[in-house]
Amino acid sequence: MSHTETYSLSAYDRRAIEEIRAWKNPSETWLSASLKQASLAWNSVTELVHKIPGVDWTMENVVKGLLELTNEITQDSVWKDAVMKDFRSSGHPISSLMDIQKLNLEQIDQVCVGLDKKYTGLAAVEGAATGVAGAAGIVPDLIALVSINLRAAGEYATYFGFDMKEPIERLYALEILDRVAQPSSNAKKVTIAPAVRTASRVARQTGSQVLEQIGVGNAVEAIARRLGIALTEKKLAQMVPITGAFIGGGLNYMYTTTVCKTAYFLYRERFLCMKYGPGITD
């Protein structure tokens, strides 16, 4: 990084970069240790999951539902209209996503504050309701959970000026959901999404039409399958009747909280990289 780039950083952006670095390299606290143990507890049932009768059917139906959901939700522009209105009501006369990208990070942070609370509340309520149904509620619950989190990631993307109607952005948002669901997920691994990188390479080599038809399509199907399996394995704890509602709501809340935080930091980082150049947060 040159001295010119260093001095062009605002004080707020400098603090934001430090926050992103701290998020990628978290220090061990009692809370992080507790969350880590909780995650290990969820993952410990994975080997037993596939011995449960009907689990393969459940997973296939979750995956099928997620693929249908992804196709439907990516055509939805409701969040874009709402975000634009939110910026205008906050005193920013914008008319396009390009206008958002001309704002300062501080201005965007002020407008999107509290977005995570909206989605974590929705996810917790939905998870507790379907958790009571036990195994029968897993398929609709997971489809609803992914729907909530795709909308959360999409809304964060839009707040930072990224167009969710673009195939590469839809793939990036889905990649966030998948990485958060995986046992080995961490901030560093999510930062450069492999599927996005692969699709970008396909785009450069063959053009956007092939990217739409092959690169993104194959990647979305692969991610939806991996995401569906990972979440189903975690959700099968709902089959214990007494704890079903607690586990359902708890998992949904934890998952959505992490997705919102991950999306917030990653889209902030991408916004800063567009403004100052790649590697600004390294």
Question: Quaternary status of these chains?
Answer: single chain
- Total of DSSP H or I helical runs spanning 4+ residues: 15
Could you give the order of the helices and strands? HHHHHHHHHHHHHHH
Quote the average pLDDT.
Answer: 75
Indicate the percent of residues in helices. over 70%
- State the shape: globular
Strand proportion, as a percent range, falls in: under 5%
Largest sheet: none
Number of strands: 0
Distance between the termini: 10 Å
Keyphrases for this structure?
single chain, 282 residues, 0% strand
Q: How is this structure best described in words?
A:
The protein is mainly alpha-helical. The chain has one domain (66-276). Helix content is 76%, strand content 0%. The chain has helices spanning 3-8, 11-24, 30-43, 46-49, 55-73, 78-89, 97-101, 105-112, 115-131, 138-159, 167-181, 187-191, 194-206, 208-235, 244-276. α2 packs across α15, α10 packs across α11 and α11 crosses α15. The chain is globular, with a radius of gyration of 19 Å. The N and C termini lie close together (10 Å).
Compile the SSE list and pairings.
Blueprint: H1 3-8, H2 11-24, H3 30-43, H4 46-49, H5 55-73, H6 78-89, H7 97-101, H8 105-112, H9 115-131, H10 138-159, H11 167-181, H12 187-191, H13 194-206, H14 208-235, H15 244-276
Provide a quick synopsis of the model:
The chain is mostly helical. Helices cover 76% and strands 0% of the residues.
